[in-house]
């Protein structure tokens, strides 16, 4: 029973009783006289009272659905082609994404100003909102295009550029959108330019990205050490389970430390693929690949299905024709400002130039997908964010259907090579030498760039022997004074691995030699015992 007291000086009053549950009876006190009312039924709003049954918290995307998608992107990375084009990929992912964000934001701000002048804007829309829109639509997600690329086996460099850009671009877009939200000038007006607030946003961007990178790489290194120095390979099911839990814990640890979990998961996947994968048993290698491929497939299909459902179930759509037309124009100009100027600058220092037909395909294939949708649905509280969300849905649907469906004709029009073996380099840029053991080794001109050679030398001689069973033993690469530590950190399997070739010498030395002519030779303990 719920009692409601009615003042005596009021004669005609509509009573309102806010309760958390539906009481069976309500007792009303009117001028000292009590009236009892029994519950006969409930009156509900006929406009979408079933909507909560088909929707859920947007944070579910970032906590459950996006991590397996992003981890699979890093774990399935074709590392040789990725690192060979690393400089170009980083340029497109960082400089290109920032360029796309600001160009899109400026174009949209001009569109918003024009809408205000002609009276077509029904709420507040500031420059920071335009930049936020530029950040969320700068996240490219060419899932459809990459699937077609993989099926047709397009040129490996084009695939590496597209895949690498999309992988890192998502991470940059997440951190960039968070940095724009963190832009809060002091005073009453939060939407004016403030140098200190800009520096704070820049610090947030660098701090979030570097912290997430360090967290993901550290978890991957830890997993590699666990799988190297334990006997988990004798228990493949337990090994697979631990691999999955360690990978998922990266997201939780990063979020608990205040970083971006999705970005940490990406770099964890890259580290796991480069190091931990070499320590797994054959069963675990197959299981982990299939497991994350399945999770990625299910998550992506669910997101696109939910995207279609949201188009009809979202109750606060704001469709403005001028804003929609301006958005399509802005993303086109932003993508063009990303691809063509950067490709021109990169070709000044690349031996293997990014051809114009590659640039046209990259321009055409800049789809928007799950990441753009997830970033836009996180905040739909204001008029500006609701208009962004509605427009984002149209952009995703259009780019996936039109650009994704037109990929195959575009490849034919641009005369892109298909049917290329992804395990081989271009015949023009690959040379082969014969090692002393009769095995044919491949040297690539692309890999003669000094940053790649420096990283490859350090990774081949120190990191891989320390974290995996592959590579030369640390006893042959570390100085003699580090002998006890090297023997402790080198597993017995490392002595039994086939001899690996060190990287070729720098081209500037003016001489050539066989890749394995001066490689250190080591023997397994069994071979030493047999000789004695």
UniProtKB/TrEMBL annotation:
BP term (GO), one: regulation of intracellular pH
Location within or outside the cell: Cell membrane; Recycling endosome membrane
Organism of derivation: Cyprinus carpio (Common carp)
Protein name listed in UniProt: Sodium/hydrogen exchanger
Main location: membrane
Family assignment from sequence similarity: Belongs to the monovalent cation:proton antiporter 1 (CPA1) transporter (TC 2.A.36) family.
Annotated transmembrane regions: 89-115, 158-183, 204-226, 246-270, 291-312, 318-337, 383-407
GO CC entries: plasma membrane; recycling endosome membrane
Keywords, alphabetical: Antiport, Cell membrane, Endosome, Ion transport, Membrane, Sodium, Sodium transport, Transmembrane, Transmembrane helix, Transport
GO MF entry, a single one: potassium:proton antiporter activity
All copies of domain Cation/H+ exchanger transmembrane, residue ranges: 23-411
Top-level taxon of the source organism: Eukaryota
InterPro entries: Cation/H_exchanger_CPA1 (IPR018422), Cation/H_exchanger_TM (IPR006153), NaH_exchanger (IPR004709), NHE-6/7/9 (IPR002090)
Membrane-protein topology: Multi-pass membrane protein
């Amino acid at each position: 029973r719920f009692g409601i007291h009615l003042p005596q000086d009021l004669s005609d009053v509509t009573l309102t009783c806010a309760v958390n549950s539906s009481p069976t009876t309500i007792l009303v006190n009117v001028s000292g006289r009590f009236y009892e009312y029994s519950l006969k039924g409930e009156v509900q709003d006929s406009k979408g009272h079933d909507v909560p049954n088909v929707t859920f918290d947007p944070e579910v995307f970032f906590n459950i659905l996006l991590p397996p998608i992003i981890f699979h992107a890093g774990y399935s990375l074709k590392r040789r082609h990725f690192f060979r084009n690393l400089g170009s990929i980083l340029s497109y992912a960082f400089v290109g994404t920032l360029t796309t964000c600001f160009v899109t934001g400026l174009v949209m701000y001009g569109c918003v100003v024009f809408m205000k002048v002609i009276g077509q804007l029904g709420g507040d829309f500031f420059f920071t909102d335009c930049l936020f829109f530029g950040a969320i639509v700068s996240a490219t997600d060419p899932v459809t295009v990459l699937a077609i690329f993989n099926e047709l086996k397009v040129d490996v460099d084009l695939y590496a550029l597209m895949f690498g850009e999309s992988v890192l671009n998502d991470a940059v877009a997440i951190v960039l959108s968070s940095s724009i939200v963190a832009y809060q000038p002091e005073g009453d007006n939060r939407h004016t330019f403030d140098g200190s607030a800009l520096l704070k946003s820049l610090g947030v961007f660098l701090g979030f990205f570097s912290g997430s990178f360090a967290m993901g790489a550290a978890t991957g290194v830890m997993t590699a050490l666990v799988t190297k120095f334990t006997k988990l390979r004798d228990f493949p099911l337990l090994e697979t389970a631990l691999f999955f839990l360690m990978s998922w814990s990266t997201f939780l640890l990063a979020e608990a430390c205040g970083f971006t979990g999705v970005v940490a998961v990406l770099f964890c996947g890259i580290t796991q693929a480069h190091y931990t994968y070499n320590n797994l048993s054959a069963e675990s290698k197959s299981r982990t690949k299939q497991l994350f491929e399945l999770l990625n497939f299910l998550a992506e299909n669910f997101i696109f299905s939910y995207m279609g459902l949201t188009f009809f179930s979202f109750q606060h759509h704001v469709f403005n024709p001028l804003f929609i037309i301006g958005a399509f124009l802005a993303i086109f100009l932003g993508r063009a400002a990303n691809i063509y100027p950067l490709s021109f600058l990169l070709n000044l220092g690349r031996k293997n130039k990014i051809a114009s037909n590659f640039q046209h395909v990259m321009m055409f294939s800049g789809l928007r997908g799950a990441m753009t949708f997830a970033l836009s649905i996180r905040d739909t509280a204001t008029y500006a964010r609701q208009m962004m969300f509605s427009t984002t849905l149209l952009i995703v649907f259009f780019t996936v259907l039109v650009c994704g469906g037109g990929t195959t004709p575009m490849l034919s029009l641009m005369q892109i090579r298909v049917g290329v073996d992804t395990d081989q380099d271009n015949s023009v840029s690959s040379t082969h030498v014969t090692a002393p053991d009769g095995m044919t080794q491949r040297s690539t001109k692309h890999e003669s760039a000094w940053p790649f050679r420096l990283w490859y030398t350090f990774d081949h001689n120190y990191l891989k022997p320390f974290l995996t069973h592959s590579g030369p033993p640390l006893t042959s690469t570390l100085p003699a004074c580090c002998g006890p530590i090297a023997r402790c950190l080198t597993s017995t399997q490392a002595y039994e691995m086939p001899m690996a070739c060190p990287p070729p010498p720098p081209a500037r030395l003016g001489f050539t030699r066989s890749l394995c002519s001066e490689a250190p030779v080591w023997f397994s303990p069994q071979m030493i015992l047999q000789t004695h």
